[in-house]
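LOG
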Amino acid sequence: METVQPPPPLESHAEQHGLQLRWLLSWKSLLLATLGLLLLVWLNYTPGGLLGKADAIGYAVCHRIDVRSFHMGVRQLPLCARCSGMYLGTLLGLAFLAVIGPRRGGMPSRRLLAVFGMLAVAFAIDGLNSYLHFFPNAPGMYEPNNTLRLLTGTGVGLGIAAVVYPAFNQTAWKQWDPRPALGSMRQLVVLIGLGLVLDLLILSENSLILYPLALLSAGGELILLSIVYGMVLMMLFKAENKLQHLSQLIWPLAGGLMLAIIQIGLLDFGRYLLTGTWAGFKLG
């Protein structure tokens, strides 16, 4: 005759819960301590001032060639024209999608993806044409300029946001909205219109406007890396589709920020060892 096992005592449940709570507190404390230490080291060894820190973020991913960048007077922006457009466009797109479609995880329709595909092709063509102009005898298609670099960079940035935003929602939330984050051509037209307004603000070359945009461009790079790394961490630790409240975003994004700072710091260190300067690459 099968014997019925008595239920475990209440104390064992309490002990297990206590162990889980202590484990959670320990890894969260370790994460915050590691993140704080990395930030202190990075802040200590990078150029001073807000724009100096923004320069160091851009330095990790961008050539920062002077003539291919916008300026506040004589002061070069942290990222070149193309990268400024790309990261500001990404930041704009993420903010726009968060407003119109909270927690929406559906990808854009094929029609909208086709538009983003054309913007990516324009980005590639203009980038290749700009690259060919490094070589005096290379057959360039047209004379490159910072306005085209900015416009094509912004277009790609909007496309990055349109893909990364729903992918993050699919990964993070326990209950995510399956509707497309960017649901119609009308919304896409509004988003592109906002991107053009953003580009016009940059092209105004007004220092009062460019200063916050310079900081936001570097912030866009850091935010994008943090989101992508946050998704990777959730997948690696089997923590997908567990979040229910906005406050719970702090942990995957803090982990993503930690990895982003490590990447930026290593790239900064390697580039500085090779060049010995925080300035951009020189032409000629």
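LOG (cont.) second protein
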Amino acid sequence: MAYLWERRNWERWAAAPELGTLNLVSAAKRAEAAALVRVGDVLSLSLPISTRPSKRNPEPLHQRGRRIRPSADMQGIADYIGIDYHGYSVTHIDALCHVWTDHGMWGGHDPEVVLSTELERRLGGVDAWSAGIVTRGILVDIPRLRDVPWVDLDSPVTAGELEAACDSVGLKVDTGDALAIYMGRDAWEAEHPGWSGYSDPRPGLDASCLRFFRDHDLAAVIWDFSDARPNRYQMHWTVHLAIPYFGLAVIDNASLGALASRCQLLLRHEFLLLVAPLVVAGGAGSPVNPLVVF
């Protein structure tokens, strides 16, 4: 916790603090990322949103359709949806107001004041990211680095492994990049169909990865698993603390298995990444469909 306090970004971006680490993505950075597009292939990193309840999806998508007849010669259908996207089943982005500690929310704001503010004026809401994330993405494939099918419960991913995975494919992480961290969740779930992510132990990242994120000035992290649990600090979240202290954009529950396979096939581990949240006033996050363009 002392490290997080010492390396916090709270007063770093006075002009646009609500953007957090997205301040690191300049127009030049976006142009550089766009130049990575060579063949125009597009890959979605989103899990399907299910209407079926399960241990991992206790609050499934509520979807209701109704027939409409806008005129005598035309009919159609309109949908209503309701979704609890935080958790372990929906690909989503966490806004800067999503989590906090005794030190306060992102920027040191008092959570009680922020939560009592009208949604249209709530600090740290996902609507601050209405322009989305358009930047260079890098994939690190931890199962391939370890020569295993998935990251297991006893061996959380360390900062050293993130460095080694980048080095193994000859890539240097630059300011404003988004790091996609594949940990083999798809293979894990195939072998552990009853796993939920809520009360169960969870494979994932060690707290040392916080230093990697901060030292490399990442704009965003996108992962299939997230914080390892249990952890040496006996905390529910460790790596998610990058949100209130660093202002980091975090995309949870991404589907990265196909991306890992594509990167290996193409021998390319960098790409254009686009993430567009819904513009939910004061929202603590949003479902997203991250797109990779090669």
